Structures are given as structure tokens and as C-alpha cells.
Amino acid sequence: MQPSGHRLRDVEHHPLLTENDNYDSSSSSSSSEADMADRVWFIRDGCGMICAVMTWLLVVYADFVVTFVMLLPSKDFWYSVVNGVIFNCLAVLALSSHLRTMLTDPGAVPKGNATKEYMESLQLKPGEVIYKCPKCCCIKPERAHHCSICKRCIRKMDHHCPWVNNCVGEKNQRFFVLFTMYIALSSVHALILCGFQFISCVRGQWTECSDFSPPITVILLIFLCLEGLLFFTFTAVMFGTQIHSICNDETEIERLKSEKPTWERRLRWEGMKSVFGGPPSLLWMNPFVGFRFRRLPMRPRKGGPEFSV
């Protein structure tokens, strides 16, 4: 069933699909690529959704402690205003980057595009080898890997992150880098404010440094310090590894598997430009670039509606 002149390789040696095969035609490449451009990408994974909600709750908690425990009770008006604006801007940018990472298609290859018609449209050269994923029945582009959680092959897949409930791949790596950067910056800012707050409370004998009682204030500040340290350590390491991967044009999976590059590498600034788009500018720091509202298609099922991915 394979077209002559080229070879098809996969792990399980599945034959090419034909139009008579019992595969969900709604997932075919002809319709999926047109529809996915206008759909919100969302992974229905229980662990990932819990982790994503926890991320938001922890950021909201940090914002609550910074605003209502440390800044509003302060007698220094400009100290409260400046630090409040900076911290809340960082929190908004971090959560916006988190949403863009979670709801952006990371570069999924259309399901079931390993059809005879699609193969003929590729106009392959004689002897050219292509690969088919036996799990999602798609033609795997170079550097694509299958994610068992997303149940799709992802172009330039770096890893699957439960904290953003999505894979980090070709199309959303930029937002993941911004998310880790803004979380790290807000964590540092919160830790600095906690240090000043402890000094102020000790000097004032815990009488006028907060609207809360001293025991509650101590508990809230200690928990925020622990959260800030953990968040900063994790996101700073992730930010560094992501920048290193981008500058070396090598994903984490490719590094762990020690895959030899068969592609032309884009090193350093060329890699950064390919991920963030265009020459260096302040737009690189903006998670709202390219944002547009998309429709949320719902598919009725017996267990209730759920997002289409």
C-alpha cells in the first residue's frame, strides 16, 4: 500500500491509511489545520489542571500578602505605590504568560494525516524516508516527538510541563520563557519586600507594621518567603535551561537522548530571533503580542461538554 519511490518507516510498521480505514475523519489534516487556527488549545489532564490552578492560587496569595499585609499598612505612601505597581505588573505579566503557554497550540501535528492522498501531495523524492507515528497516525516532521499526555506529536517538543498543563514546543516556548522569567522576578521582589517587612516589624515590636495580629503576620510572611524561594529556584533554573536550549537550538528531549543534529542549527541570536520573532526589542517581553480572541467549540458528550483540542 506504500507509494512507490519512497519509504515509510515507523516503530510498528503500520501501513498507510486509506479512505476506507476506520479512523476518525474529523481529525484528518484537511479539516484539522483549518479548524485549529481558530480554536483554543486546552489539554484535559486532571493533574495538569490541578497544577495550573495551584499556580494561579499561589500567585494570588503572594499578591494578597504583598498588598494587604506589607504595602497598605505602610506609612510611606510612595514606597507602597511604587512597589505595589511593580509587583502587580509582574504578577499580571506572569499570569498572562501562563495563560498564553497553556492555551497556545505548542505545534501539534494533525492527527491521521498519514493518508495516501497526503503522501502524494508531499511530492517526495525517490528513496526519501519519512516517519509515521503509530500512536496518532501522523507523518512526523523532523524534530517532532509524541507526547503521551497531549496524545499528539509536537514539533520541537522540549518537555511537557504540568504547571502550565501543556507541552512546551515550537509555538509556545516563547510564552513559557516569559512565564518563568516573570515568576522569578516577582519572587525576588517578594523576598526583598519580606526582608524589609521583617526589619520594620522587629523595630516596631510588631505593633504597627501590619493590620493583622503578630502571629498571623509571621505565618503569612514565612509562608511567602518559602514560596518565593521555591518559585525563584525552580523558575530561574528553568529560565536558564530554556535560554541555553534556544541558543544551542536543541530541545531538552534532544539533549537527553543525545540526538545528533540533522538540521541546520540556529545558534545564539538567530535562535532567539526564531523563538521570539524579529530583532531584539521590548516586544520580546510582551506576552500579549499576537493575541486574538478565539472561539471555544464545545462537543456535547454524555459526560458533559468539554473543550475540543
From TrEMBL:
<keyword id="KW-1133">Transmembrane helix</keyword>
<dbReference type="GO" id="GO:0016020">
    <property type="term" value="C:membrane"/>
</dbReference>
<keyword id="KW-0812">Transmembrane</keyword>
<dbReference type="Pfam" id="PF01529">
    <property type="entry name" value="DHHC"/>
</dbReference>
<dbReference type="InterPro" id="IPR001594">
    <property type="entry name" value="Palmitoyltrfase_DHHC"/>
</dbReference>
<feature type="transmembrane region" description="Helical">
    <location>
        <begin position="219"/>
        <end position="239"/>
    </location>
</feature>
<feature type="transmembrane region" description="Helical">
    <location>
        <begin position="46"/>
        <end position="71"/>
    </location>
</feature>
<feature type="domain" description="Palmitoyltransferase DHHC">
    <location>
        <begin position="132"/>
        <end position="258"/>
    </location>
</feature>
<dbReference type="GO" id="GO:0019706">
    <property type="term" value="F:protein-cysteine S-palmitoyltransferase activity"/>
</dbReference>
<protein>
    <recommendedName>
        <fullName>Palmitoyltransferase</fullName>
        <ecNumber>2.3.1.225</ecNumber>
    </recommendedName>
</protein>
<keyword id="KW-0808">Transferase</keyword>
<feature type="transmembrane region" description="Helical">
    <location>
        <begin position="175"/>
        <end position="199"/>
    </location>
</feature>
<keyword id="KW-0472">Membrane</keyword>
<keyword id="KW-0012">Acyltransferase</keyword>
<feature type="transmembrane region" description="Helical">
    <location>
        <begin position="77"/>
        <end position="95"/>
    </location>
</feature>
<comment type="similarity">
    <text>Belongs to the DHHC palmitoyltransferase family.</text>
</comment>
<dbReference type="InterPro" id="IPR039859">
    <property type="entry name" value="PFA4/ZDH16/20/ERF2-like"/>
</dbReference>
